Amino acid sequence: xxxxxxxxxxxxxxxxxxxxxxxxxxxxxxxxxxxxxxxxxxxxxxxxxxxxxxxxxxxxxxxxxxxxxxxxxxxxxxxxxxxxxxxxxxxxxxxxxxxxxxxxxxxxxxxxxxxxxxxxxxxxxxxxxxxxxxxxxxxxxxxxxxxxxxxxxxxxxxxxxxxxxxxxxxxxxxxxxxxxxxxxxxxxxxxxxxxxxxxxxxxxxxxxxxxxxxxxxxxxxxxxxxxxxxxxxxxxxxxxxxxxxxxxxxxxxxxxxxxxxxxxxxxxxxxxxxxxxxxxxxxxxxxxxxxxxxxxxxxxxxxxxxxxxxxxxxxxxxxxxxxxxxxxxxxxxxxxxxxxxxxxxxxxxxxxxxxxxxxxxxxxxxxxxxxxxxxxxxxxxxxxxxxxxxxxxxxxxxxxxxxxxxxxxxxxxxxxxxxxxxxxxxxxxxxxxxxxxxxxxxxxxxxxxxxxxxxxxxxxxxxxxxxxxxxxxxxxxxxxxxxxxxxxxxxxxxxxx
Length: 497
Known about the structure:
With 497 residues, the chain is α+β, with helices and mostly antiparallel strands. It contains 16 helices and 13 strands.
């Protein structure tokens, strides 16, 4: 659907480490995720949305700081067991706040790992190849550092690439030996760490540890494109470097605003703050407390699931805002390492499945195990995405029979209806844009004159197509490229130029 109006989007950040250093990372209140939130709406709706927010703000005026109702009014300690441990007054504030988000309000949320950002710089010299999935290995290194918090590795991160690599190797060797005490649970981790040890021979010097804002803004831009919002203004809460990055990425009508003057920035601040505090509480609850913990499952306390009707309703409201209303592929975004965000969104979906607290209480002691199973399934799916190097671009289609793929070729949902490529009696050369496999059928998208057309390929070319998809998944994408299709005994052969 195309949105023809002019949209205003308001953007705020929390858990912001403007310069990442050892003091930052080792601080007691450090959280690995840099979290951003944006709220937006059609410009024509802003007056009415502001009026509703002002009424809400007046209701809780006693909790204002400097004439602003900010997320700092919610103390981190109140979320020890998530919403289950909220005070009555804070729960009421959140409930009323969540009610402000109707279908007119668009929400974007992101969480990017600071550790991943540093690891990517340190290991920038390593590229994907058919022999090594460096994206997956960088993910594994990040996860190991974030979850285990090895003191020596964290300290060495900021000393230089040589010190970091040696410390990391020592840590990985110790982890492999520890993991061998529970091979059933840790087999995949052992494999990843052994592979990392084989590949860690050198590294690029760290260029800078100043935070880069491009990743969070790039996914916000993708979200706006996905929602077909071509006319918009982006207002950022007094952060010159963020605004500069936005302009460099091609955002239109970028400006800085003051939350004291703009209600929508306070609205974005509250949303970002609530999400951040809930993620921090969950990360702390699941954190390893000793070396022995690292080879065992980490489960939430049952206190997280001791929900009243009001607390369950609170989760359902947040689930609607984050996971359902005006949903889109890029609405909730992260980097490769996104475990905290996945835990957060999975918990919202998990709790949303229950219609009443009694459904939870009837099997309360098993809830941590059930939730752990759900999270592991989501992490498996994320692992698959990390492995996939093909661009993920959502395709909008209002047609129930077909859609247009990323290259513009028409594909039928029922792949058996796809027309077959025929070249006649003589070889023909095409500019091939993409090759893929869907539902066991090899497909080719190519230029035919001034048109882009998708054809089915004969079964004998399926292994050829699968090989090319495998190469693309490892970061080696051959296309666009010229391909000659030659008829041989009623079949086709394919030769890439």
